[in-house]
Amino acid sequence: KVGWIRTDLRILLWLPGGLALFYLLPKTRRPALHFFITNMICLWMLHLGAQQSLAIHFAKTDFRAGEARLYGLNLFAVGVIMLPLIGVYLTLFGSRSTFHRFAGLFFAGAWLYYIVFLSATRNLMLSFAMMVLAALPYHLLKKKDGLNIPAWNPNTLVLAGIVFVAVVITAGALQQTLVFERFGTGDFMREASARGRVQELIEVYRDFDKVALVSGSGLGTVFRPYATYEANFLHLGLFTFLFKFGVLGFAAAVVFFYILVPLMLAVATFDAKAYPPARRTAILVALPPLMPWIVQTSISSGFTTANFMAAGMSLALFLEINSNGVRRLLK
Fold first, then answer.
1. Among 14, 191, 196, 270, which residue's Cβ finds the most Cβ atoms within 10 Å?
2. Is the pTM of this model over 0.70?
């Protein structure tokens, strides 16, 4: 269908679109300030998405945060776009000044409030956790692109203490909420969700032309899984690449998501001489924001405009640091 072909093309075009948007950042006089403003705009859009969801789903009933789930496609899309921005803040710009460290924590906290507490979205929470873990090596290394930044200075220790206390208090406060049910004790819900995703894949594979798996059915391929609607993706998003782009596309996705990115991060972390300084810094700053795309492709589609836009921004950040180091961005 022509409409679905346009949809798939629009998704793919946001990869260079995200690259172009982030490419403009080092061209500005004060990249850190513009990056802060960009995060503030995204945060405001996140708030508007939450308000839109409230107006649609809870117009006639009272919404009690923590007891009901706030669901909205705009809310989720902006949440996905914000993830790499927060990831860069927690790595690169967080090392610039105390103000930007606290700004990064503020954006991360606001994102967690809207996406985790209000919408209780498990795949995005897991994406956030994986991104933060992948970003830790950057803060643990003492030399970054020739800049002698201490690995643990008093400001960092204070921030770590604040985060630890906040996590403990938050965990206690959420014990009786929907968030805790879905993340902590929702074994039945998780199993039902996992079974639904596997059943979706089985049904699509059963009805799919097996010969077409070699080359793929191309752009515009849609699926009508166990749900009643048509979609241009599967929840187990890695297989979207198989059905659309064939065995070669599927193999390329597997190598990129599960071999190349993790391997580059591991080598850059544990072997200081494996890459030139600028490339090592580029890997440790730009690849952690790709972790959400990997998580969402594994369990929750990943084939959306927001995901490809975020990937484009990460690619632009990698190319900028690899070519010019971090100094232009930290002006």
1. 14
2. yes
